[in-house]
Write a sequence for this structure.
């Protein structure tokens, strides 16, 4: 059984980034069935699924890869800042 989740049809890259930064467990869906298979098998259970299939600028695998790398860089920076603020670095 697939756990309940919110479905968001993103319209822009900015909306995708905003959905990823909202504190919920989010997965991106770009049109493939592999995400649905993972949900059915219980491998993933996101709180929100963001459909990026129709987002201009994310219509190639390379575009999505660039977005993911940029987001990872942001997360690493935020993590470093948080560690400095709580004195663990």
């Amino acid at each position: 059984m697939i756990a309940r989740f919110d479905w968001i049809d993103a319209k822009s890259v900015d909306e995708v980034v905003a959905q990823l930064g909202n504190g919920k467990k989010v997965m991106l869906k770009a049109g493939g069935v592999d995400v649905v298979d993972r949900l059915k098998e219980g491998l993933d259970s996101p709180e929100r699924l963001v459909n990026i299939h129709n987002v201009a600028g994310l219509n190639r695998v390379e575009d999505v890869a660039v977005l993911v790398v940029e987001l990872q860089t942001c997360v690493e920076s935020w993590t470093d800042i948080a560690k400095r603020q709580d004195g663990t670095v």
